[in-house]
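TASK: fixed-backbone design
INPUT:
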């Protein structure tokens, strides 16, 4: 096809004061039709002249420092846990609960300490009675009167947040203490507390009246921040993008008890120091808290959205920062009535997380890098490299489910110091628009069966498995995160299913293959769920009836009934835990198989399954075997099929291998000839309504690839990171 004409629109640009002429040039270059401010910048007067829409960041739970200081009893709370302290004798044990925490971020909250603090002997698991300890409010020292010698103790305590989390992060990251020492350290306030909600509503009305130039209110976000705690050196100590530890308060806990009929303990929040990480199998109490807070946040957020709409403006939510309680795939989210959601894209999975959100009119992605000095500097910063990485990873997802808009964030004055970066993002903006224009608004064709990802969370955490801090890389998780990263750009409808849902309703009819991926004991593998005979029986019968099952790492793992992988009979493999070393193994090694046809050399399983894996049956075909351990195996079970991977970190080859595995497990190897490319670095999207296909090159090298579809083959050459559109006009569809 000929090159696309240059178009405009679908792009939001961050702007700031003092560079009006440069802004006009940049808006024209990028084809931007919307502008926005960022935390720490202000919209210039020329904003409304530049584009069709003006966004403005709005912080409902902070920003009015004068009011916050005048109402010191309205601070947001957070549950924290002290270090584990060993009693070395029977004498009183003194614990500084704030040891290791950033005292500019937190201070102990002494409201009803007997109710909201909890001391636990971690050696025995017993709670130390309130009568057995005391707190000195002047120092934050808790003293256990008579500890058991050589037992370990912790204190779970409610803390006040005296510095807003987001502003603190931006303040420290950007060095505002040096560059802008007059900037205040903003205090957050909790809308459950006395007078706050009335103030928040009126503040929004007043702000809307005084900012007629704003078309879109970009709520950043609503009320409760995800869990972040800094250490004594002002470094990140604990980060959980899904954490609810900062959504607590005496008022909320009391309201929960009144509604649910039982009292939550401090331990329900600190969770032994795990803080209800999304990797933990969620407890019933934590599930109740999520639902409780989500209903409350949705009700209050809807009131702010209604105020915004009454003023003739659009309401947009940033998926991040104070997003806790707005679970976008939860049952309460749509009731908020938002016009749009915008979020940061750090991967294909996070891009799909934003793109697939139901209940809004449009979605927008904020690409990396953020225009901050940690990247935009002349001392090793690589903004072009980060822009390319962000675009390549996100583009896979955008092709499958295009977001309506894209943009960037931060200080545009920094970006303007790097003309090569501006040139590159100008190309990215046009390519983004081309995907919309050339697809004609049509989604590309998917396989004729859906894929189900089975874990404890199900649809509530759609596209959110194995994430800690949004899309950051973690050694312990990347071998599993590659599963959803690959799926985000592959031609499948993906359903995220919980064990409870499957037990209640069975596997949805449209699902042809189930995937269970994760480390033993985690929410993603399932832990104790697999000790339930109803679940294992249901899945066995479903696979035997002609469906597929793919396990990654330690799938279906729980020590029960003499097995560790409870569906080892289906998968044809088992984990060696040094308990069956006396048993000899004679695996059947197979060199050529459709699943591993693109693998050259040793299959990359990342960190693997955490130990050796062995075949359990003569019929198990081992496709990759390294140092006596299975990395890839396939097995037939009744009329169905199963595939096992010891790990699946994302790479083009592994993504292609997963695609092949899904086709094979579903008994649809014929699909390897339908809109399939020969080079794993390339992917194909077929638009039957447009009679057009797209081939993307996900690598930084030029490629030549063969594309097969509709009984034909096309030879396609693609430049590094490029894409090629091809019309199919002479073949009946």
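OUTPUT:
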């Amino acid at each position: 096809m000929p090159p696309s004409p240059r178009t405009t629109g679908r792009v939001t640009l961050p702007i700031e004061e003092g560079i009006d002429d440069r802004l006009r040039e940049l808006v024209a270059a990028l084809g931007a039709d919307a502008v926005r401010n960022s935390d720490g910048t202000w919209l210039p007067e020329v904003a409304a002249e530049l584009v069709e829409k003006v966004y403005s960041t709005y912080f409902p739970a902070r920003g009015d420092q004068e009011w916050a200081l005048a109402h010191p009893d309205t601070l947001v709370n957070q549950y924290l846990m002290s270090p584990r302290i060993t009693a070395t004798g029977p004498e009183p044990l003194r614990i500084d609960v704030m040891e290791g925490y950033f005292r500019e971020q937190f201070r102990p909250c002494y409201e009803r300490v007997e109710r909201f603090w909890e001391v636990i002997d971690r050696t025995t698991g017993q709670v130390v009675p309130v009568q057995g300890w005391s707190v000195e409010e002047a120092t934050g020292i808790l003293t256990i009167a008579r500890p058991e010698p050589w037992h370990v103790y912790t204190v779970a305590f409610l803390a006040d947040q005296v510095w807003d989390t987001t502003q603190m992060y931006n303040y420290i990251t950007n060095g505002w203490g040096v560059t802008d020492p007059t900037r205040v350290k903003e205090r957050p306030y909790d809308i459950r507390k006395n007078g706050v909600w009335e103030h928040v509503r009126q503040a929004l009305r007043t702000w809307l009246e005084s900012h007629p130039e704003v078309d879109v209110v970009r709520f950043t976000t609503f009320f409760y921040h995800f869990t972040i705690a800094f250490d004594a050196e002002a470094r990140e100590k604990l980060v959980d993008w899904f954490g609810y530890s900062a959504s607590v308060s005496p008022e909320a806990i009391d309201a929960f008890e009144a509604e649910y009929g039982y009292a939550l303990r401090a331990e329900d929040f600190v969770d032994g120091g795990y803080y209800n990480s999304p990797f933990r199998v969620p407890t019933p109490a934590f599930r109740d808290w999520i639902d409780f807070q989500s209903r409350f946040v949705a009700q209050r957020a809807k009131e702010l959205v209604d105020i915004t709409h009454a003023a003739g403006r659009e309401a947009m939510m940033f998926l991040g920062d104070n997003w806790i309680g707005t679970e976008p795939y939860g049952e309460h989210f749509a009731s908020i009535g938002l016009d749009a959601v915008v979020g940061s894209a750090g991967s294909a999975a996070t891009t799909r997380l934003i793109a697939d959100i139901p209940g809004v009119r449009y979605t927008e992605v904020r690409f990396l890098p953020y225009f901050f000095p940690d990247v935009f500097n002349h001392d090793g910063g690589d903004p072009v490299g980060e822009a390319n990485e962000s675009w390549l990873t996100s583009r896979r997802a955008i092709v499958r489910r295009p977001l309506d808009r894209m943009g960037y964030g931060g200080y545009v004055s920094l970006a303007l110091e790097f003309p090569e970066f501006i040139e590159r993002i100008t190309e990215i903006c046009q390519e983004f628009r081309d995907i919309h224009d050339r697809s004609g608004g049509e989604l590309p064709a998917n396989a004729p069966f859906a894929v189900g990802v089975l874990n404890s969370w199900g649809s509530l955490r759609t596209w959110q498995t194995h994430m800690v801090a949004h899309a950051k890389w973690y050694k312990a998780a990347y071998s599993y995160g590659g599963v959803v990263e690959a799926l985000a750009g592959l031609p499948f409808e993906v359903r995220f299913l919980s064990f409870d849902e499957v037990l209640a309703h069975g596997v949805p009819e449209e699902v042809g293959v189930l995937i269970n991926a994760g480390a033993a004991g985690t929410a993603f593998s399932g832990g104790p769920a697999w000790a339930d005979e109803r679940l294992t029986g249901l899945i066995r019968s479903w696979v035997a009836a002609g469906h597929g099952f793919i396990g990654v790492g330690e799938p279906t793992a729980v020590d029960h009934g003499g097995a560790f992988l409870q569906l080892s009979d289906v998968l044809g493999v088992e984990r060696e835990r040094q308990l069956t070393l006396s048993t000899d193994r004679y695996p059947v090694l197979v060199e050529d198989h459709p699943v591993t046809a693109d693998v050259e050399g040793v299959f990359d399983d990342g960190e693997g399954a955490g130990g050796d894996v062995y075949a359990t049956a003569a019929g198990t075909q081992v496709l990759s075997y390294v140092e006596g351990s299975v990395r890839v195996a396939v097995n037939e079970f009744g009329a169905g099929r199963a595939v096992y991977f010891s790990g699946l970190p994302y790479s083009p080859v592994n993504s292609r291998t997963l695609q092949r595995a899904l086709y094979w497990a579903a008994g649809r190897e014929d699909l390897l000839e339908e809109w399939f490319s020969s080079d794993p670095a390339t992917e194909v999207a077929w638009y039957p309504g447009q009679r057009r296909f797209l081939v993307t090159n996900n690598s930084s090298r030029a490629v030549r690839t063969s594309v097969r579809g509709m009984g034909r083959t096309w030879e396609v050459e693609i430049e590094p990171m490029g894409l090629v559109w091809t019309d199919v006009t002479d073949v009946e569809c």
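COMMENT: Residues 676-727 form a domain with the Immunoglobulin-like fold (CATH 2.60.40.1180).
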